[in-house]
Amino acid sequence: MWLLRLSWALSVLATMAGSGPAVPPPSTASIFADLSAAELGAVRSFLLSRPELGLSPSHGGPLAKNSLFLVELLPPKKRPALRYLDQGGPRPQRQARAVVFFGGQAEPNVTEFAVGPLPTPSWYRPLAFKGGRSVPFTARPMTMREYEELHSVLAAAMAPLNRLLRDATGFWYHNGSCRHPRAGEGDGLGQRCLTFSDVAPRGLASGERRSWLILQRFVEGFFLHPVGLEVLVDHRDPDPRRWAVRQLWYNGRYFSSPRQLAESYERGTLEVARLPLPPARQLFSSYQPRGRFATGTPSKAHGARVCEPQGRRYRLRGNLLEYGGWSLAFRLRSSAGLQLFDLRFNGERVAYEVSVQEAVAFYGGHSPAAMQTKYVDAGWGMGSVTYELAPGIDCPATAAFVDAHHLYDTDGPVRFARAACVFELPTGVPLRRHFDSDFQGGFNFYAGLEGRALVLRTTSTVYNYDYIWDFLLYPNGVAEAKVHATGFIHATFYTPQGRRYGSRVHSHLLGNLHTHLVHYKVDLDVAGTGNSFETMDIRFENISNPWSPGARQGAHPEEPGQDWELCAHPTQHPHMGVCPVPPGRYHLAVTRHHENEHSSSSIYAQNEPWEPLVHFESFLRDNETIEDQDLVAWVTVGFLHVPHAEDIPNTSTPGNAVGFFLRPFNFFDEDPSVASRDPIIVRPLDPPACTRLQIQRW
């Protein structure tokens, strides 16, 4: 993911902070609001002014330097926040989390700091991980500066292979920058650049930093244009002059150096994968229309649209969102994305926090890059790649859009316009309905309530994949978390041996088999923080029929995987059910709330998966009681993706969405959507003829 793709994305889709003033959020919800551009800038200026830290700008200069990598809100601890929200206690002090790479010292490391108070910081203190472990320098996420150096090293190493690459692909690796190709500009042969995608983890053991790079032709949708060459670069040393190519893989064979590969080609002993030049138009990896639908129905007319004939029925004030009985605070944290706080229905808190924690994708393959690929997306800035949402496609044109500001591997806050959206969605199915037949051809009444939900949406474009993150609020007290996967598949060069690990989706392209898993944190507070956890198992029971002695009756056959998980207050007895889709080691894990277990993953997990800084298994090993305690549910959802030709050019969202519901279970006296004024009741005035009707609306 080197300079070519990052620089154009940032310049086109994001602008440096400095837009007009934002609407100030209401006071209570604002304790969870993301840092403003001014606050981000104040934290950066304060830390750079501290001589003992010795910080340098992120961009430019050597890798072996001290630099500020990330600044985002450090949320208040739960107990002080609840005292403020519920008891009129003191407002929690606003603080920032700052991640600093200390590369310019004898023993490089990564240190996290709390910085406060905002908006005018005057102090900082180190933040500790559970167990007091320090962050090794090799665990740090990649930066633009490191990618620049990686590009230079690769360009020098590819020089002996220019003849092979030109002859086989018509492209070669330039020691300079190439402008990103655009559709309709021909095949890009004027530049004929190669680029690369890097995979992770970066090695096979803790402390390593060795990345396999997949070389690709730099055309539109370059993820689908590997040329059959993969290169292993060791870039552990803070001095790029000590980096080296350790191994290469070309069309099924391994080589110890670029020179060995070049000599094999020159001797004529190399099986060369010759690729035709890409076409000038209708490249298979582009979005340009091609082909025709068979029925001849109108395809040039605009399709259905969401409209709000009487205006919005929700209220968005800063980071406070209200809709019907629902209210919540939200933020888009740079590290991991969407996070909800203080989720309430009719003023009663249902959950203190519901948030995305991590997204991973595990791949199989025959090439070394495919074998090695185990993406852990928080390590790629999953929350910082919230690029602009397109009205009418990503969200309805009527949606309310929200900007975000990130300070992630930049020398100042960056504004991401339209990073999130809010809209009311007709679900297309009634929330509930009944046709009451008189069984004589007429009816007694019909009643129905149109299905609608409020959607809070953002996206994360993590490398090739685009994740669409949704939280949906329904008027019957049900909340849903959902993620759709789309974007380009992570593909490798086709070889016959690779067919064991995926599908041949194009002439020289293998779509590699992989599994998506997404982790959520659900801190339920059902009628308070003292909750218990129970499951309701449904099993088959063979009983004697009480009205016909001797006859047997079977009731309630068990359906494996359909157990109900319930979180309940031990004395007041209301429940909220968590209903997930069950993949992974734990489709649902429940622990007690601890401030040092605020997240199940970290931005360091990708490059240090062997000895992770946050080890989720340790959350469970303490064997604490979960009766009448402040509980947190950790939910895993996911799916297996077997790529196929229809994933070209992009994976489609239908069939590639997973999520879970929070459902009330005897929490209310009745369906709370009875408070809605949207139902329609139809009654015949002249039964059984039913020619005159009474229609009731509210």
UniProtKB/TrEMBL annotation:
Contains 1 topaquinone per subunit. Residues 1-22 form the signal peptide. The keyword Signal applies. Its cofactor is Cu cation. The active site is at 377 (proton acceptor), 465 (schiff-base intermediate with substrate). InterPro entries: Cu_Am_Ox_Cu-bd, Cu_Am_ox_TPQ-bd, Cu_amine_oxidase, Cu_amine_oxidase_C, Cu_amine_oxidase_C_sf, Cu_amine_oxidase_N-reg, Cu_amine_oxidase_N2, Cu_amine_oxidase_N3. Topaquinone (TPQ) is generated by copper-dependent autoxidation of a specific tyrosyl residue. Residues 187-253 form the Copper amine oxidase N3-terminal domain. It comes from the Eukaryota. Its EC number is 1.4.3.-. Pfam families: Cu_amine_oxid, Cu_amine_oxidN2, Cu_amine_oxidN3. Residues 305-545, 585-673 form the Copper amine oxidase catalytic domain. Gene3D superfamilies: 3.10.450.40, Copper amine oxidase, catalytic domain. PROSITE patterns: COPPER_AMINE_OXID_1, COPPER_AMINE_OXID_2. The modification 2',4',5'-topaquinone is found at residue 465. Keywords: Copper, Metal-binding, Oxidoreductase, Signal, TPQ. GO terms for molecular function: copper ion binding; diamine oxidase activity; primary methylamine oxidase activity; quinone binding. Belongs to the copper/topaquinone oxidase family. PANTHER family: AMILORIDE-SENSITIVE AMINE OXIDASE [COPPER-CONTAINING] (PTHR10638:SF3), COPPER AMINE OXIDASE (PTHR10638). This is Amine oxidase.
